[in-house]
């Protein structure tokens, strides 16, 4: 899994948060969806796969901004827009959209950036340009008081 963070803050040192959480901060993960996660015909994975990925990027966001993993409080407006399949390469993005005293509201998006293409060969795959937006949501995470 790859990860990147975009922020106006300076790079963080090990074991410390970057400081004040800022609206617009983003965390991006990329990962391959293994065939062991296929749940339905056509190698489809269930929607919970995207929600778990949202939890992962939210956890990293909270570690970066608050020095704590935080706890997910709620999801809202979850939209399953396109399938995620085993063999896909996906990127999962969290963007901080609201900062409360203990709450952090984020927008999430799963994009399929590459997909297996068995018609061309057993291990063939194609980069999707543009990526396919598969799942979107908003969520709220709470962190301990500072």
Automatic annotation (TrEMBL):
This protein's UniProt keywords: Hydrolase, Lyase
Annotated signal peptide: none
GO molecular function: hydrolase activity; lyase activity
Pfam families reported for this sequence: 4HBT (PF03061)
Residue segments, region Disordered: 1-22
PROSITE patterns: HOTDOG_ACOT (PS51770)
Domain of life: Bacteria
Sequence intervals crossing the membrane: none
InterPro entries reported in the protein's UniProt record: HOTDOG_ACOT (IPR033120), HotDog_dom_sf (IPR029069), Thioestr_dom (IPR006683)
Compositional bias segments (type: Polar residues): 1-19
UniProt domain HotDog ACOT-type: residue ranges: 22-146
Protein name: 3-aminobutyryl-CoA ammonia-lyase
Naturally occurring in which organism (per UniProt): Knoellia remsis
